[in-house]
Specification:
single chain; five-stranded parallel sheet; alpha/beta
Length: 473
């Protein structure tokens, strides 16, 4: 049984799963310390705070965390509402991190750089399972610190490790030199980062839902600023997987993101190039020259800005002194990897899993949350909550509860969206944001479809523009 009175647990990351782990451990009377690299809880979520997730609040909130919050007077948001990243932080994570039970155990500005066994290197066998962990981190100002813990849950996520442009998994030639004109992930095209894209030539590279979000936002920007031009580069020619779950999607927005992407492609208001790859980036005429290959043929593009939405990967360098059993391709635990292979699964087809699938040869060490999925893009928060519930039970010696994993997830091919607030179960939805008030269309996708001579995107009845609330910069 885990020695909970003398050896605490170290949690890396104060995001949704890291704080959920702290809450579950608190219910089990197990002491923990949470090390967060940012200056507040949910720091990474705020970087994509303008993006609305497809999972409604009922899947965003961890139950142990909710019980802890409710004891301090917190009220749950509408379970069917679709929050943005900022709303998740403001209405859930920030209050959770400030409850007295957790607040004193969170260390902010603590950037973990390495983990090892106390007194042992990676090669040493003797006494390994009984040795505590040493977690090395860097404080604000650069001072190095070490804490010792009996167990470690790495919930640090993958946001700080975006994948580069190259189809080889490496940065393309010139990518680092052009960093000032390249954004990774989901920039706030309509808000904080608007000046960077307004009226510019923009290349978006990526074949997933982050790329769709960026493209739809650029199309909305283009309505106000018609000189904005968009090239969308897909690494593969098939777009079926890109368009999501469609009508089979059980999340509230029911595949509207995929429908909006299809309307965008058919609108001819952007150029779709596939299969697409880049060999080199260089400076030309105060812009970027992109030496690319489109369907195997060489082509040179000239753009002002590039958005790289090619996914994320785990930071394994901090774990070099630990014995891990990782799938060589997905970089997830070997027992979990076949269950989350993105070639076979969408977000909701991944079966629930817990301590058994997340265990490594390094006893009492676990990677949880999105980082546990390695390079697979199929993670949902609810899955991470079940992971840490199971691990907390194991650490408390409740092995039966740790292995009774029960979680029902919605079948979905879509994980996040920048669609507006009114996409609930009672609405047929609105694709790509509201259309301008003077346009007889229900949304951007409807407007571009009608301009292309089609009846519309089919996502709902016409409605006037909704008020947008941009996140604070």
């Amino acid at each position: 049984m885990f020695e909970r009175t003398t050896v605490p647990v170290a949690i890396i990351g104060a995001g949704p799963v890291g704080l959920a782990a702290a809450a579950h451990l608190r219910e089990r009377n197990i002491a923990s310390v949470t090390l967060e690299a940012g200056e507040h809880s949910g720091a990474s979520l705020l970087e994509w705070g303008h993006v609305r997730v497809f999972s409604p609040w009922r899947y965003v909130i961890d139950e142990a965390s909710a019980r802890l919050l409710e004891r301090h007077g917190w009220s749950r948001p509408d379970p069917d509402g679709l929050p943005t990243g900022r709303e998740i932080v403001d209405q859930y994570l920030s209050p959770l991190s400030n409850v007295p039970d957790l607040a004193d155990s969170i260390v902010y500005g603590a950037d973990v750089v390495a983990i090892s066994r106390s007194g042992l290197d990676k090669v040493t066998d003797r006494g390994r399972d009984a040795a505590a962990f040493e977690i090395r981190y860097v404080e604000r100002g650069g001072a190095e610190r070490t804490i010792v813990a009996g167990s470690v849950l790495d919930a640090s996520g993958t946001w700080r490790q975006p994948s580069p442009l190259g189809v080889t998994g490496l940065p393309v030639l010139g990518e680092k030199a052009a960093a000032g004109a390249i954004a990774y992930g989901i920039p706030d095209v309509l808000g904080r980062d608007r000046d960077r894209y307004d009226g510019k030539r923009v290349l978006v590279v990526g074949g997933g839902h982050s790329a769709i979000n960026v493209v739809l936002s650029l199309l909305e920007l283009r309505i106000a600023s018609p000189t904005t031009s968009i090239i969308w580069g897909l690494r593969r020619k098939s777009i079926d997987r890109l368009l999501g779950g469609g009508l089979n999607d059980q999340l509230p927005a029911r595949g509207d993101l995929g429908a909006a992407a299809r309307a965008a492609i058919e609108s001819k208001k952007l150029r779709l190039v596939a299969p697409f790859s880049i060999d080199e980036i260089h400076s030309v005429n105060d812009a970027l020259g992109v030496n690319a290959r489109v369907d195997g043929a060489p082509e040179v593009l000239e753009v002002d800005s590039i958005v790289v939405a090619t996914g994320f990967r785990p930071d394994l360098n901090m774990l070099r002194e630990l014995r891990l059993d990782l799938d060589p391709a997905v970089e997830a635990p070997k027992a979990l990897a076949p269950m989350i292979d993105p070639n076979l699964h969408s977000c909701g087809t991944v079966p629930p899993h817990g301590v058994v699938e997340l265990s490594h040869p390094e006893k009492w060490f676990y990677v949880v949350g999105s980082k546990s999925y390695g390079r697979a893009p199929t993670f949902l928060m609810a899955t991470g909550y079940e992971q840490v519930r199971s691990i907390a039970a194991e650490l408390a010696g409740d092995h039966a509860a740790a292995r009774q994993v029960h979680l029902v997830l919605p079948e979905t091919g879509v994980c996040s969206t920048s669609l507006p607030v009114n996409l609930g179960p009672s609405s047929s939805g609105c694709c790509g944001g509201p259309a301008p008030a003077e346009i007889d269309a229900c949304c951007v996708a409807d407007e571009v479809a009608k301009e292309a001579g089609k009846a519309g995107c089919g996502c709902g009845t016409p409605q006037k523009a909704l008020a947008r609330t941009e996140p604070a910069e």
